[in-house]
Each structure stands twice: as C-alpha cells, then as structure tokens.
Design a protein that fits this description.
The longest helix is centred in the middle third of the chain and has 32 residues. By secondary structure, the chain is of the alpha/beta class. The strands form three sheets. Strands 2, 3, 4, 5, 6, 7, 8, 9, 10 and 13 form a ten-stranded mixed β-sheet that branches. Strands 1-14-15-16-18-17-19-20-21 form a nine-stranded mixed β-sheet, sandwiched between helices. Strands 11-12 form a two-stranded antiparallel ribbon.
Length: about 750
C-alpha cells in the first residue's frame, strides 16, 4: 500500500524498508537528560522480536490465570452446570455462535432421477441423502443412516474436514472398516447423521466476481471474512451440528444424543458439546491436546480468547459432567492451506498429530475437574497404539456407547455398501455448502450497521437506532447538541469495551522508561535523536525524536507523534536526507522545521515475515499487536509529558495508511493524545474486512492477520472516532494509498 500524492500539510504513508543497525561513533551524543544509547543491533527487529517474546511469555502467564475466570460450584452436578453458564456464553460468543437457528423440521431427501435419496442399503441399515435447515439461507447436507430395528441412541458423526460423509458411512471404496464409524454405529442401533464439513482445498476461494484465485483454503476464507463479523467457520459448523441435535430431539426426545468426530470433526464435536448441554456423550479423536501452540496451527482454528479462558481442558469443563471420550490417535497431518501455484497469501500454519504427552497432560487437567464434579467415570482416555494409531478404536467407540447408554458396538465390517447414486460427486454438495456460508457472511455484513446501533442503544438513551429510510432516521435526530457530559460518560464505558473486547488488553507497562538516546541529525533548526525506552522486560519503544533548537529556558512546545505506515520505520518520516523521500516527504522534519517537537515511533506492523505471528499468538490470549502498541504509547506519552520542553497537554497524533489506522485506534484508548489526524486509512472498515465483491479486502492483499474480532457488531471507524470526541479529530483522504478506492 503506497501513496503517490501530496497531502495538504504533511504526508505519511507506507513503503517497504527496515531500520538497519546504526553505525556508532566513538562517542555517543545523547539528548540532554537521558542516558547514551549504545546498542548496535537492528532496533526495528528488536521491537518486533521483543513483542513476539512478550506474547510467548503471556501464553505461559495466561495459562496460570485461567482459574480466576471460573466460579464453579461443586455442591452438585446441577449447581456446577449453572455456575459455568457464564463461561459457556462467552465460549459461544468467541466461536461465533450468534444466530438463532430456524425451527427444527423433518429432514428433506436429496434426490435426482439418476440419484435416488436412498443411497445404499444393507440387512441392518438404510442410508439416505438428506439435508436439514440451520439458518436462513443455510442448511446442512449429508447422510442419514437409519437402523432397521428400534434406535437406541442418536448420533452426529463429524468426519475429518477433507473426508466426504460417504467415507465414514461405508459408501466410499478403499476405506478401511474401522474408519466407517457411522456405519458401525448404525449397525449398533444408533440413528446417525453425517454432515458435510467445509474442506481445506481452495477451488472456489476468491472474490465473488472471480477475478483472482488466492492461495486460501475454503475454511480459511470463511474464517477471514467472518472474524470481524463475530462469525467463524467453527461456529457455522457447530450450528449445523446443533441443528442435527434439534432434529433428533424433534424426532425422539427420549433417546440420548451423542456427537463424535476425528481431526477437524473432533474439534467441532467437542465445541458442539461444550455449547449445548443436550448432548449426552462426546468422542473426540485425533484433536484433544494442550493448545498453547495454537498459533502454529492453521489460522482457521484461531479463536479469540480461547487460551485466555479455556484451552481444551477448559472446553471439557463445559462438557462435564456429561460423557466425554478423548481418543489419542494420529491426527491429520499436512499444510493448512491448498497446495497450488498461486501466490502464498495464507498465513503459516500446519496440521500436526497431537503428541501423546500433550494429550495426557491436558487430559489430566480435565480429569481433575471431572473428579471434583463427582463424575470421574464419565471421562475416558482411549489410546490408539502409542497414541498415533488409527482413530475409532474398539475401546473408544465402546466407551462412547456406554456413556450414551446404548450398549456394545457392532463388530467392524470391512468392504463397502453399494452407492445407488449414479455419477454422484460429493464436490457438488460441498460447493453448495460452502457457497451458503459465504453468502451468509455477506448478509451479516450488510446488516452490521443495525447491529452496531443496537449495541450503542443498550447504554445510550439518545442513540437513534438505524432505520431503513432517511425520514425514519431524521425522526431520531436530537434537536439539540448531544450533552457533552453525557457523551464523555457514555464513551468511557464503550472505550473500555473497545480496548478489552476488540483490541485486547495486555497488563500495563511494568518498567520505568529508562530512556537511552543518541544523536543522528544536526540540522539548522533541530537535532534528531534515536530513542529506546523500556516498556516490559521483553518490549521496548524505539523511535526518533526531533527537538527544535533555540528553546528558551522554561519554554514548552507541542509534540506531534508522526506515525509511519505498513512495512516502514521511523527514519523514513524524520530524516530529510533519506534517499527516495518522494513518499513521506520527510513529514516529521518539516514539522520540526516549523518548531514542533516530533516523535516518530516504530510500530509493530513491519517485517511482514514476523509481525503476523504477534497477532496469531495474541488473539487466543484475548490480546493483539494493538495491546502491545497501546502499552508502548502509554509509556511514550508519559515520557514525553515529563520532558522539560514539552507542553504535556498538547501532544497530538498524525498517521497515514496503517499509521492512519493507529491514529484512530490508539487515541480512542489513550486519552492523553490531545488530537488526532487519520490520513489515507479512514474507511468502511467492516466492508474492508469482509466484502467479497471487492478487490480491496485484506484477504486478497495478504494482510488478513490484521483483522479484529467482532468489529462489525460493535465499532466501525465512525464509532471509534466518536471515542476520541470531544478532542479534535480530522480525516484526510488518500486517493492512491491502496487501502480502499
């Protein structure tokens, strides 16, 4: 994202560069009142590496602090389930379980002249192609396996994401009998539904106009587009699973209900049982383990707040005291993205089989809770071979059926049933299922202004709800200006929500600044110094300060914090001698020439091979790179306010492109910034994240690690800018920045 035009006072934009190691003279000249800076390493890299180390340590700290977020009542099993209900509601929100499902109805048969709905039949089981309603415009589609005798239980079988339902139902050639778990359960007397899961190929990923085909999997694209909408590929598939439970309860409410899955299906099975207490027993195969390295897994498994409050053992706490079988088996292995020749745009992340040590360690945490609930027998660990054997062992399936009260499993049957559907291609069904989820995200995006109005109206009696017509909107416009004291009070609450629930809140800075500086510029009207100050043990604030010459004793000047854009660094905006200054035009130097004190900080959105991992590590902790940058800027503002030449109440912020995004986000939280100017980034941010008709969304530009959770229902740029009021705020449009048209 580069800019090629001149803005009306200063121009800040982004370009690709990195701050190399400084060549130190024999004598470092520090800024008066500070210690000399003698570090020779690349300070930009130190900022990014320090932030990554901070997140790595936060993963350890947060794991030890989860218990403070739970208030379990172990006096009875019913009391326990009631006491963890607040945790369950937060879990439902984090996985995007936001929409009300349509009322349960009978299943629909899926058939063509050449493809009858009765797909296969044996002496004990009939297999039907079916669909069932889930959300408006979204259904589930797969197979129903009906035992020919009376049903003893009802089970949703969730195959691995890259397996078709036919593979577990005994209709796919070459599949060993043990993997045909849906068929085995039906032969054991269970009524079984097998939904289609969205796969990891990328055949249909891309803008709705079909202009280019990025290297994104179907799962990843739904995740990227849905994340800021508080929707998730996980939540959608849980909805499809729970809609199957709705049908089971409509069909025969007296029968127990179970869910079972392997790999990605194991994830969906476990999350479904955690979200809905109607599920009596669950089997999770090839998935359950410690999740502290979730950031190494495919990005579509990223769940806001998952490690902050849960982890896999925490999810199991939401299932207790109901039955849970953890099966330690090999999991799916390989890349989390399609193997294509398209440019690599997906973030790093791979599928790795859960190590048995990791499974055991997390299982023991879950077992401790089951014991305290008084239901130790309802939790079982089944190990396949050395923990890397095939899924759906006899021991695992038998334990699952015992917890359902459904008797013993039928023997494993080799061979397959004959599929009567001539020319049936499961890819056609998968395409329908994928398209429905994509379309639903776009509908949620279009409705988001109404959701934001509802969100603000919860605490604001004067907030007009979004209306469908101009006349209806006019009817809700106040006749008088909004009372300032009411606005300040209102935005205080929303500011905290924006900080904690959207950007994420790290612990406050733990170290004094201990600023170290060295001079690198001696210009006619100002001196320039590199600055390093401490924030946390791992994290520094690195930047450049320009101090005008000729300041009188006791004189205090205003400060402009000038923020660079994506993939840049402080000297690009402050050094007038920097080669190729056609982009930034040495904006900071011009301000210093005019008598302002200028500080240009190094922010975290540079070194593209490194900084996305800060986001990936942070989001499950309910933190982000913004959490760290807020701490860095809190430290910066305090240091600036303590300088003898600074007017402490006159510190302003000016940024372009990704620096412009900082100019919206950071002053909205840090009230010490007296004003802010956003240049080249202020836009329809929800649209920017999620509009698949656009070439400008983050998914196509490789920047989708920069998305925020649950943006659409709470804040767009207009609402965030309102958090800055009544401090002055200005938007400066950037024609060719590349952020948006």
């Amino acid at each position: 994202m580069k800019s090629s035009i001149r803005f009306p006072f200063i121009l800040l934009t982004c370009a690709f560069a990195a701050s190399g190691p400084a060549s130190l003279a024999a004598d470092v000249v520090p800024m008066p009142g500070t210690a000399p800076l003698r570090e020779e390493q690349n300070l930009t890299e130190r900022v990014i590496d320090g932030a990554s180390a901070f997140m790595a340590n936060e993963i350890k700290r947060v794991a030890g602090a989860r218990e403070t977020l739970w208030k379990p009542d172990y006096s009875s099993q019913q009391a326990y389930e009631t006491s963890v209900e607040p945790n369950r509601k937060r879990f439902q929100d984090y996985i995007g379980l936001k929409d009300t499902r349509v009322a349960a109805d009978d299943l629909e048969l899926v058939a063509k002249i050449s493809q009858p709905a009765l797909a296969a039949e044996s002496a004990g089981v009939s297999v039907h192609a079916v669909r069932w309603r889930v959300l408006p415009g979204v259904d589930a589609e797969g197979l129903l396996l009906e035992p020919k005798g009376p049903a003893r239980a009802q089970v949703v079988v969730l195959p691995e994401a890259d397996w078709a339902p036919e593979s577990v139902a005994g209709l796919e050639n070459g599949v060993p009998g043990r993997r045909q778990v849906a068929r085995r359960l039906a032969e054991s007397g269970c009524r079984v539904l097998v939904p289609t899961l969205i796969d990891r190929s990328g055949k249909w990923s891309g803008p709705l106009g079909g202009r280019k085909a990025p290297n994104l999997s179907h799962r990843e694209l739904v995740y990227i587009v849905g994340y800021c909408l508080n929707r998730h590929i996980i939540g959608y598939e849980v909805q499809r699973t729970l809609a199957a439970v709705d049908y089971f309860k409509l069909r025969d409410a007296s029968l127990p209900v179970g869910v079972l899955g392997f790999g990605e299906g194991g994830l969906i099975a476990m999350y479904s049982a955690a979200a809905d207490t109607r599920i009596d027993a669950t089997l999770v195969s090839g998935y359950f383990q410690k999740r502290e390295e979730l950031w190494r897994e495919p990005t579509y498994r990223n769940v806001w707040g998952l490690l902050h409050e849960f982890g896999d053992a925490g999810v199991a706490r939401l299932i207790a005291p109901r039955g849970l079988v953890v099966e330690a088996s090999r999991g799916p292995v390989g890349p989390g993205r399609p193997a294509t020749n398209a440019p690599a745009q997906a973030t790093d992340g791979a599928l790795a089989s859960p190590p048995i040590e990791s499974v055991r360690a997390e299982y023991e945490l879950a077992a401790s809770n089951y014991r305290r609930v008084g239901a130790p027998a309802m939790l079982t660990l089944a190990i396949s071979g050395d923990g890397q054997g095939e899924p759906f062992t006899d021991a695992g399936v038998a334990a699952f059926l015992r917890k359902l009260g459904a008797g013993a499993p039928a023997p494993v049957a080799d061979g397959v049933l004959t599929d009567r559907r001539r020319g049936f291609d499961p890819a056609t069904r998968l395409h329908r299922q994928y398209d429905q989820l994509v379309a639903h995200t776009q509908e949620v995006m279009r409705a988001s202004p109404f959701r934001r109005s509802e969100f603000w109206a919860k605490k604001d009696p004067l907030a007009p709800l979004a209306r469908n017509t101009y006349q209806q909107q006019r009817a809700f416009v106040p006749d008088k200006p909004y009372p300032l004291d009411k606005w300040v009070e209102l935005t205080g609450d929303y500011r905290q929500y924006f900080w904690e629930e959207v950007l994420g809140r790290s612990p406050p800075p733990s170290l004094p600044p201990n600023a170290r500086t060295r001079q690198f510029l001696d210009e006619p009207r100002y001196n320039g110094y590199e600055v390093v100050m401490d924030v946390w043990p791992e994290v520094i604030n690195y930047g450049v300060i320009l101090v005008p010459k000729g300041l009188r004793p006791g004189e205090r000047r205003p400060v402009v914090v000038v923020q660079h854009g994506h993939q840049d660094f402080p000297k690009k905006v402050t050094d007038p001698h920097f080669v190729g200054q056609t982009i930034y035009q040495a904006a900071g130097a011009e301000l210093a020439d005019r008598g302002f004190i200028v500080y240009a900080p190094q922010n975290l959105y540079t070194l593209a091979e490194k900084f996305p991992l800060i986001q990936r590590m942070g989001h499950p902790l309910k933190q982000s790179m913004w959490s760290i940058m807020i701490g860095q800027h809190q430290q910066l503002v305090r240091w600036l306010q303590g300088l003898p030449m600074v007017a402490p109440e006159r510190i302003g912020f000016y940024g372009l492109s990704y620096g412009g995004k900082s100019a919206v986000f950071l002053p909205a939280v840090i009230e010490e910034y007296a004003l802010s100017i956003c240049s080249g980034d202020w836009t329809e941010r929800v649209w920017k994240n999620s509009n698949l008709l656009s070439d400008f969304i983050f998914a196509w530009g490789g920047h989708f690690s920069q998305i925020e959770f649950n943006f659409a229902d709470t804040f767009n740029y207009a609402e965030i800018s309102g958090l800055i009021a009544p401090r002055p705020f200005m938007v400066e449009r950037g024609h060719y920045d590349g952020v948006s048209p």
